[in-house]
Amino acid sequence: MARGSVFKIIVNGTLWSFLGVLLTVGFFYWSESHSRYNLKISVEDEFDLIEVREEIEDLQILYKREDILTSKKQIKVLTLSIRNDGKTILQQDYDQAQVFGISFVNALILSADVVLSNSPYLLSGIREEIKSQVKSTLGSAAHSSPNILLLPKLIFDKGKFVTLKIYLLQQTIEQPLDVAVVGKIANIHEMKIHRLDKVKLLAPKLLVDILAEFKYIMVGYIAAALLVLSGAKLVEMNAKRKRARRCKEFLTKNKNLSPEQLAVIEVYKSDWTPQTQNLVKWLAEGNKIINTHELVSIELNRLRAQRPLLSRLFLFALRRLERIELPAEVFAQDRTTVMLRTDLQDFIKTFFQQVGVLKPNRGTD
């Protein structure tokens, strides 16, 4: 075989397999690196504890003897959720050189508590940390509040969440309330605070989760389909190379073939299908196809013997055999009958016996 032919076979034979493997590896690498760790911190609700819509003379709202109306301050209530949608976060995943928590720019923390969690471990651990933080703060500075809510570096299992309710004193209503994450967790490039708008809050959470996962499912199906197609292409090209090798061996042993005989060999080498092979076997045994509907019956019988379930699933697709034009180099066909070409019948049987399509006759080598 020439060097150029070898190169062509290598390129054509490995193109689909390489593409399939590349896409599959890329998908799994992307899924691992993209969503391996996914800690979501969201502000689910935010409202003013006291809302004065009309000006009332001599109205005062005091906090520690200070009128928050005249000082243009505001008491806000935040509902903040922390949810782990990725892999379990261990204690060593936190940056040990920094504290971990939530900071509030332009606001001081008045009080905080865990109001909901699906993990008793997180519920008790965070609640105890918040209580000890409040006690230490009040003991050291009675007239000040921290602006960072420290959270313990606990093990955060996948699928677990906590919901916090936090009361804040906004220092001035002229500046927006800014919420940020303090600290670092390994494998999470950037941690942001997500704010849920009213539309997102009204959407059913189950539906939102399904839609969020749907894109990953579709990418997985596409990658799997490409992998299956590349595998099927490899099998097909490998079978074609085997047929070409058998044809070469036959041509080496048999010289001076007619153009019609060479055409039969070319059909087997290039345009061969399982349906054509099955039909050759059927006709070589002395059977005849009376009409094209029998082509479907033969193929269905073959499938029933190998894969009973697939015979039902492929019934509609097999009806296309009624419109298939059989290769004239091998078959003789008119309106009612399909048979092997009578002028080449002996050669066709001999050739297909030597390449392994038909069983050799007894008494022959």
Give an overview of the whole structure:
The chain has 365 residues and is an alpha+beta fold. Helices cover 45% and strands 19% of the residues. Among the domains are: 37-186, Immunoglobulin-like (Sandwich), CATH 2.60.40; 254-354. It has ten helices and twelve strands. The strands form four sheets. It has a five-stranded mixed β-sheet with strand order 6-8-4-1-10. The longest helix has 49 residues, at 205-253. Residues 1-14, 138-144, 198-203 and 318-323 have low confidence and may be disordered.
Primary descriptors:
alpha+beta; 365 residues; three-stranded antiparallel sheet; 10 helices; disordered N terminus; Immunoglobulin-like; single chain
What does the secondary structure layout of this molecule look like, with pairings?
Elements: H1 3-35, E1 39-48, E2 62-63, E3 66-67, E4 74-84, E5 101-105, E6 107-117, H2 120-140, E7 148-150, E8 161-170, E9 178-182, E10 193-195, H3 198-202, H4 205-253, H5 259-270, H6 274-284, H7 293-306, H8 308-313, H9 315-318, E11 331-333, E12 338-340, H10 345-354
Parallel strand pairs: 1-10
Antiparallel strand pairs: 1-4, 2-3, 4-8, 5-7, 5-9, 6-8, 11-12
Helix pairs in contact: 1-4, 4-5, 6-7
